[in-house]
């Protein structure tokens, strides 16, 4: 009698912060994933609203493994989580605390990843359905409009961490680079994947993305709100410098593992003058308006 095919084992890592209100619904959707063996790891980042007490009860019941917390911020918290599970599981998925996953989310992701060259670090990402706080659908994301590759990942993140699944090679590569110098964890994972391996972007809504006022990104909001968010962060603030620092870290950590064409492209944006960068052929951003804005920043010497 033939042996039944084993289910893919996926470590789901979640960083929580004052998420008690919606946490149970998300945990249930993660544990209800079909066709995969889920191991849930949670790290709390300093909650004060009862989140930790909920997590401790679930940990005592064996529902999840609760890792030591302390406030690091969302990016460092997620990277630390990845480093703690990368050697233990063939796949690692990132989870927000307030979404609801579709039941085939992880099976679809691991199936796509299993079809790739097993010698390459790889990431899977998808679209999502954004909802209000009561989980009423408000629309579907269109993050990937013209394709995603290394050049288009350098200055724009179109991958949403809550849809992301990594194979073990990528999780190991990310964890070995440490926590310093990373701007955002999901952008960083996708940059590393496209620099030394590959990224699969699935035109599929894998979850219900609950949009709250304290969400880290502006995805799913109105055009005016997104524009105001970008002006506040990139023009008035110092976040353009963090984008450059992230590219410098990419060079410092992975230069020897990158193909020649990607090394040349990265060196071009880190070393050449603004006019040369503004003349780079090919697209760098998904929308034409954002493309014009980026090339203006090159000419102004802001990037």
TrEMBL record:
SUPFAM superfamilies: Nucleotide-diphospho-sugar transferases. The keyword Transferase applies. Keywords: Glycosyltransferase, Transferase. It comes from the Bacteria. The keyword Glycosyltransferase applies. Signal peptide: none annotated. Residues 12-120 form the Glycosyltransferase 2-like domain. Belongs to the glycosyltransferase 2 family. CDD domains: GT_2_like_d. It comes from Olsenella absiana. This is Glycosyltransferase family 2 protein.
């Amino acid at each position: 009698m033939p042996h039944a095919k084993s289910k893919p084992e996926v470590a789901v890592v979640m960083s929580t912060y004052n998420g008690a209100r919606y946490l149970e619904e998300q945990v249930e959707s993660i544990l209800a994933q079909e066709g995969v063996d889920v191991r849930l790891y949670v790290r709390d980042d300093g909650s004060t609203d009862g989140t930790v007490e909920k997590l401790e009860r679930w940990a005592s019941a064996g529902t999840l493994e609760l890792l030591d917390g302390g406030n690091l911020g969302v990016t460092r918290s997620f990277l630390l989580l990845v480093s703690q599970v990368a050697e233990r599981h063939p796949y690692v998925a990132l989870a927000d605390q307030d979404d609801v996953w579709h039941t085939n989310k992880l099976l679809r992701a691991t199936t796509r990843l299993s079809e790739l060259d097993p010698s390459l670090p790889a990431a899977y990402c998808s679209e999502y359905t954004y909802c209000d706080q009561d989980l009423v659908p408000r629309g579907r994301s269109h993050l990937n409009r013209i394709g995603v590759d290394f050049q288009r990942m350098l200055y724009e993140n179109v991958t949403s961490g809550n849809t992301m699944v990594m194979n073990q090679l990528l999780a190991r590569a990310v964890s070995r680079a440490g926590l310093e110098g990373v701007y955002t964890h999901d952008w960083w994972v996708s940059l590393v994947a496209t620099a030394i391996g590959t990224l699969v972007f699935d035109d599929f809504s894998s979850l219900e993305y609950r949009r709250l006022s304290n969400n880290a990104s502006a995805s799913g909001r109105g055009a005016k709100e997104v524009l105001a968010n970008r002006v506040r962060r990139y023009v008035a603030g110092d976040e353009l410098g963090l984008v450059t620092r992230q590219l410098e870290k990419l060079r410092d950590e992975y230069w020897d593992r990158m193909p020649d064409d990607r090394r040349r492209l990265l060196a071009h944006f880190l070393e050449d003058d603004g006019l040369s960068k503004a003349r780079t052929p090919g697209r760098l951003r998904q929308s034409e308006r954002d493309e014009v804005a980026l090339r203006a920043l090159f000419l102004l010497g802001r990037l």
